[in-house]
């Protein structure tokens, strides 16, 4: 069977239904006596075989409840056959079949209990099941058990058996109701299992009814529910959804829904209805009604109390989830605000201090080792902070890698707490990586500290602490900074600049200026080889705003991509106009800075190619200046984009070379064509031998890698002469002029004789 194709295996459950249905019809019609006699063994045998083989067929796990059902089916089938064979035998031989049937009930109950245990017993479902069970038990005892045991002239064994079957059915009712109340999923296999249980119960109920009069056999058609039960039961383990019986989906809320009340309601009403309807004044009947009714009332009270307790517990869980971080269990931003407001309202020694820290290096850990390692790091940092600080201190997680500590103390204690916070974050942590690897990682933190004014709000306090934290990052990270009012003014000014910059970018109020790049091998700068396009902004109120200010704002405000696209488009078009009117020769090139964010756009190369084609500018006449961080921190997308740009013919130069992660490996691995020596090394030429040696090394390395070299920030003839002597072929700086508008660039270029056009005065 296991070798059958899956579609065939999934359809096997139809077989028992078809065979069992046809055989049941023939049995009911009693057309052929031989077939009628063989119907029960046939259907029962198929069901028992299905319970034994079906779980293997569909790889059901665990198989224990199915084995118990197989044993139950075997005993039931044996009991039916033995009862039929010994029907005319005298007492007690005629009751031998009942021994097998009772064993079958035992295995059947054990199987259902195993399912229930596997799914998990829900207290509310158990209480509801007990209510139904007691109601059914009262009805069974008064309607069937007491009348059956009171029949005169009946042997003790027969009376015990007559009363035992209804009680066993009550247990089945209890388990069946609990199963139905436990799972939220109603797969076909579950529905067929329920139908089989109901048919067994219906068959026993029929025999219990006739047992009131002393009849133990009844008409032949009373066996029909058992035949149908075997028929449907044989299809259960063969259905593909039989696997779901081992992993039921729990009901999240055990509510008294209309469907559930339709089952529970009659059970609750049983004691009252039977008190009115039955004319039975016997002591056992009164005891059954009294004890059963009291038990139902007690269960109802317990159910109501449990529902209230569950609601309260759920409300507490919801409130905790809404106010605490799920990863660390620390208060979240919302809860922190409430706690800080309470601290600000309190009076006591010292001041309220807030420490706002952001982990430096967390992104690298997350990207290198995965989110699980990042979660472990966050959890460990939270635990360290909690243990390193006094119990009165509040520790909260307010962002991905951001924590806040609030403590009431004096200034010396606050500074000591700041040192403890930094020390506990910096301690090495062993993290598990992929494929069983592990590594010791060290992260640091940038922290802002603010002392609360008695009249400040929690939001204002957190805002100022956040501002101080970012100031610490700007100063080099892995440090802490205490907030002062000037930081707030700087933030306000930055926000105002961002608002104005958005309008300037949208309305194209920015201007481009061009600074010449000269050839030192041809008359020490007499020939202009290229130009760098630099963006300039004249604010209508503030006047000229330096690029060091607004470029950083553009980066933070996510405006740099739009600004960079405009700069590229305008500079390429300007180069096209100069080429067209003969202002520059065919070898003249334009240098433009691009940000890492632009290089994270997969469509950047295609848009640039379209811009060059539209302007009619060869790709080789465009140089894109990138930062060293692009090579170090760039993604696979960035690397593919750089290769695509080189395929187009665009040249790529590393700006501010020497100030960051200058390494030969990065230059060899990425498709760069040149480097630009940073002005900080050029400034010392003629007076610093160290700067001269650095420039000499860059020239030698670039020559070995066939990279073009440009020196920026040249301001004096002495610097120019040293660069020329060291073999630097290209340079730019105020020695040959400031960055100027396009018209002025043309005029100064024609007048340039290799001597200073402007000398920096600041």
What average pLDDT do the residues reach?
82
Number of helices: 27
What percentage of residues falls in helices of 4 or more residues?
55-70%
Structural class: alpha/beta
Pfam families: EAL, GGDEF
Protein name: Diguanylate cyclase/phosphodiesterase
Transmembrane segments: 12-29, 35-54, 66-86, 98-117, 129-150, 156-177, 189-210, 222-238, 259-278, 284-302
Organism: Dactylosporangium salmoneum
What's the short version?
By secondary structure, this protein is of the alpha/beta class. The chain contains 27 helices and 16 strands.
Write a structural description.
The chain has 762 residues and is an alpha/beta fold. The chain is elongated and about 135 Å long. The longest helix has 41 residues, at 283-323. Residues 753-762 have low confidence and may be disordered. The N and C termini lie far apart (91 Å). It has three domains: 6-308; 333-483, Alpha-Beta Plaits; 494-751, TIM Barrel (Alpha-Beta Barrel), CATH 3.20.20.
How does the SSE layout of this entry go?
Blueprint: H1 6-10, H2 14-29, H3 33-57, H4 64-85, H5 96-119, H6 123-149, H7 156-182, H8 188-211, H9 224-235, H10 258-277, H11 283-323, H12 333-345, E1 351-360, H13 362-369, H14 371-388, E2 394-397, E3 402-409, H15 411-426, E4 429-432, E5 438-441, E6 444-451, H16 458-474, E7 480-482, H17 485-506, E8 511-519, E9 527-539, E10 543-545, H18 547-556, H19 560-581, E11 589-593, H20 604-615, E12 622-626, H21 628-633, H22 636-648, E13 651-657, H23 664-669, E14 674-677, H24 679-682, H25 689-704, E15 708-711, H26 717-726, E16 730-731, H27 742-751
């Amino acid at each position: 069977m296991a070798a059958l194709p899956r579609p065939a295996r999934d359809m096997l459950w139809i077989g028992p239904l078809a065979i069992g249905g046809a055989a049941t019809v023939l049995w009911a019609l009693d057309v052929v006596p031989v077939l009628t006699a063989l119907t029960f063994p046939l259907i029962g045998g198929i069901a028992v075989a299905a319970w034994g083989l079906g779980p293997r067929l569909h790889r059901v796990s665990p198989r224990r409840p199915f084995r118990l059902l197989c044993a139950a089916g075997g005993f039931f089938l044996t009991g039916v056959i033995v009862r039929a064979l010994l029907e005319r035998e005298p007492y007690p031989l005629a009751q031998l079949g009942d021994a097998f049937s009772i064993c079958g009930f035992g295995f059947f109950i054990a199987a259902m209990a195993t399912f229930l245990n596997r799914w998990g017993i829900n207290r509310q479902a158990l209480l509801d099941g007990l209510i139904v069970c007691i109601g059914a038990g009262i009805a069974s005892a008064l309607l069937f058990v007491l009348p059956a045991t009171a029949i005169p002239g009946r042997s003790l064994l027969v009376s015990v058996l007559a009363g035992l079957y209804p009680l066993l059915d009550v247990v089945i009712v209890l388990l069946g109701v609990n199963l139905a109340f436990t799972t939220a999923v109603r797969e076909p296999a579950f529905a067929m299992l329920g139908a089989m249980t109901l048919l067994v119960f219906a068959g026993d109920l029929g025999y219990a009814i006739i047992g009131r009069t002393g009849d133990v056999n009844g008409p032949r058609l009373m066996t029909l529910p058992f035949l149908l039960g075997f028929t449907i039961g044989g299809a259960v383990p063969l259905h593909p959804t039989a696997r779901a019986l081992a992993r039921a989906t729990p009901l999240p809320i055990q509510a008294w829904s209309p469907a559930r009340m339709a089952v529970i309601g009659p059970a609750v009403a049983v004691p009252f209805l039977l008190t009115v309807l039955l004319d039975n004044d016997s002591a056992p009947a009164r005891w059954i009604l009294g004890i059963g009714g009291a038990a139902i009332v007690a269960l109802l009270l317990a159910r109501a109390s449990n529902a209230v307790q569950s609601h309260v517990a759920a409300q507490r869980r919801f409130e905790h989830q809404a106010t605490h971080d799920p990863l660390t269990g620390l208060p979240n931003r919302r809860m922190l605000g409430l706690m800080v407001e309470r601290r600000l309202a309190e009076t006591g020694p010292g001041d309220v201090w807030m420490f706002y820290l952001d982990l430096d290096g967390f992104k690298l850990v997350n990207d290198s080792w995965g989110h699980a390692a990042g979660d472990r790091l966050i959890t460990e940092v939270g635990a360290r902070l909690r243990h390193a600080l006094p119990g009165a201190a509040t520790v909260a997680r307010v962002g991905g890698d951001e924590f806040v500590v609030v403590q009431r103390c004096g200034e010396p204690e606050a500074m000591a707490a700041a040192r403890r916070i930094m020390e506990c974050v910096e301690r090495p942590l062993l993290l598990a990586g992929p494929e069983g690897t592990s590594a010791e990682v060290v992260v640091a933190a940038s922290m802002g500290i603010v002392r609360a004014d008695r009249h400040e709000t929690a939001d204002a306090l957190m805002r100022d602490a956040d501002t101080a934290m970012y100031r610490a990052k700007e100063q080099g990270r892995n440090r802490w900074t205490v907030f002062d009012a000037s930081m707030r003014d700087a933030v306000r000014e930055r926000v105002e600049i961002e608002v104005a910059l958005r309008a300037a970018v949208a309305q194209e109020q920015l201007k481009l200026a061009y600074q010449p790049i000269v050839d030192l091998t041809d008359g020490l700068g007499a020939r202009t080889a290229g130009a760098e396009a630099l963006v300039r902004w004249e604010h209508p109120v503030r006047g000229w705003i330096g690029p060091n200010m607004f470029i950083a704002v553009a980066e933070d405000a996510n405006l740099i991509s739009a600004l960079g696209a405009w700069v590229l488009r305008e500079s390429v078009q300007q180069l096209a106009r100069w080429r067209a009117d003969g202002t520059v020769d065919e070898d003249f090139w334009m240098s433009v800075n691009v940000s890492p964010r632009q290089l994270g756009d997969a469509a950047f190369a295609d848009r640039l190619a379209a811009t060059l084609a539209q302007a009619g500018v060869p790709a080789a006449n465009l140089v894109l200046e990138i930062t060293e961080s692009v090579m170090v921190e760039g993604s696979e997308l960035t690397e593919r984009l750089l290769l695509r740009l080189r395929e187009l013919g665009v040249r790529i130069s590393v700006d501010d070379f020497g100030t960051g992660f200058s390494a030969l490996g990065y230059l060899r691995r990425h498709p760069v064509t040149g480097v630009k020596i940073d002005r900080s090394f050029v400034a010392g030429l003629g007076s610093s031998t160290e700067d001269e040696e650095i420039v000499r090394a860059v020239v030698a390395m670039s020559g070995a890698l066939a990279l073009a070299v440009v020196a920026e920030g040249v301001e004096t003839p002495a610097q120019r002469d040293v660069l020329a002597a060291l073999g630097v072929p290209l340079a730019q700086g105020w020695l040959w002029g400031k960055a100027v508008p396009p018209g002025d660039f043309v005029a100064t270029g024609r007048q340039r004789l290799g001597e200073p056009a402007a000398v920096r005065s600041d």
